[in-house]
Specification:
Elements lengths: L4 E5 L6 H10 L3 E6 L6 H5 L5 E6 H4 L9 H26 L6 E4 L11 H18 L3 E7 L19 H9 L5 E8 L30 E9 L19 H19 L5 E9 L14 H13 L59
Parallel strand pairs: 1-2, 1-8, 2-3, 3-4, 4-5, 5-6, 6-7, 7-8
Length: about 350
């Protein structure tokens, strides 16, 4: 099995160089960041990827602003799901690429540590997945920053219990939706702790191993960022080596070490190296649109061959998501029940699925 390492595109500059690079890499998936229809998506789709991930920068960042209540979070989830639908339909119509192969990101690195904002994220992402399921689309949810959700100590699991609604839907939606995480290493690599003695494997990188949900995982940003240890974004091109070639080789070796571990977890569908090209000076030193990186990474990528992981059974897809067990319940009181044989009619009060589905289908 090839490494599950794929490009993260911010296609600010585009030329035959980029076409040749992507063709040589021949990745099974691509993530692209843009506003609206991704730039150069025709070049991406010519690779015939198994699936792509789209982050609409405007929805992902500005889309979090002004949300302070549960009702606002749910409404924003509906609005973003509709924006995803419109873009998925355009891609399907213009390029013939099916909506079932496009995953849409929502809020990017939401500040779940601020008060109880995590509850709003849980409501937003659950509504977004539910609405997107109704028209046959897919979501990458969470997009949590390195080290978050926080935990209660250096060797305890993150606070995944903050997201009961998301967990419930994700575990019913394997093969459709997935949890998205960002993982970055400092200049000491993926395995070692930071110089201050914290972080390291299973926290900065490998935090996905501390998630025990039976759901698909997408590591939608991975790489080197010294900011996980100290302030200021510094990517792989700032590694303390003597030449760009040495930095590229070190970075490639770390990425392949990481990929070998990703290959053992069937839940992980892809890890996206941040970033090919860039829009901001903050990300110039992260750029994999670099000849030294290309010469080091691509041959190593194609030479790698990892064993297939043990498959986890995927439930059949459904557009009806059961959120009953995630709803609040009274501590002691319960409604009375009766035998199924006594029930002769069912009334659908309201449902949250595509309006084109008939009552019989539901």
């Amino acid at each position: 099995m090839k490494p599950k390492l794929y490009p993260h595109l911010i296609s600010e500059h585009w030329s035959q160089l980029d076409e040749d690079m992507l063709k040589e890499w021949a990745p099974a998936s691509v993530k692209t960041v843009w506003v609206g229809m991704p730039a150069h998506i025709d070049s991406v789709l010519r690779l015939n990827p198994k699936f792509i991930i789209i982050r609409d920068y405007e929805l992902a960042d500005a889309g979090q602003h002004g949300v302070t209540t549960h009702a606002q979070a749910v409404q924003r989830g509906r609005e973003h799901a509709d924006a995803h639908r419109q873009l998925a339909e355009k891609i399907e119509q213009q390029f013939g690429y099916p909506r079932s192969k496009v995953l849409f990101e929502g809020w990017n690195e939401p500040p779940i540590w601020q008060g109880e904002f995590y509850k709003l994220v849980d409501a937003y992402e659950t509504m977004r997945m539910t609405a997107v399921s109704g028209w046959g689309g897919r979501c990458a949810v969470g997009n949590f920053n390195t080290g978050h959700p926080d935990n209660s100590g250096p060797d305890t699991d993150p606070n995944w219990f903050w997201f009961p609604l998301m967990k419930n839907v994700l575990e019913q939606s394997r093969g459709r939706h997935g949890l998205a995480l960002h993982e970055y290493m400092s200049f000491v690599g993926p395995e070692a702790k930071r110089p201050n003695g914290i972080g390291g494997w299973t926290w900065d990188m490998g935090r996905y191993t501390r998630n025990h949900w039976n759901c698909d995982l997408y590591l939608t940003e991975v790489g080197v960022d010294e900011a996980v240890y100290q302030g200021g974004h510094q990517g792989w091109q700032k590694l303390p080596h003597n030449s760009m070639e040495e930095r590229a080789r070190a970075y490639t070796n770390w990425l392949l070490w990481y990929a070998e571990r990703l290959a053992k977890d069937e839940r992980v569908k892809g890890a996206y190296i941040f970033t090919h090209d860039s829009q901001s000076p903050d990300w110039f030193s992260f750029d994999t649109r670099n000849e030294s990186f290309w010469r080091a990474f691509v041959p190593t990528y194609h030479a790698a061959n990892f064993p297939e992981p043990t498959p986890i059974p995927v439930p059949p897809p459904t557009t009806i998501l059961d959120v009953v067990n995630a709803l609040p319940k009274h501590a002691t009181l319960r409604y009375a029940t009766r035998p199924l044989s006594q029930i002769t009619e069912i009334v659908l009060h309201h449902v949250g699925v595509d309006a084109l589905q008939t009552p019989e289908q539901i």
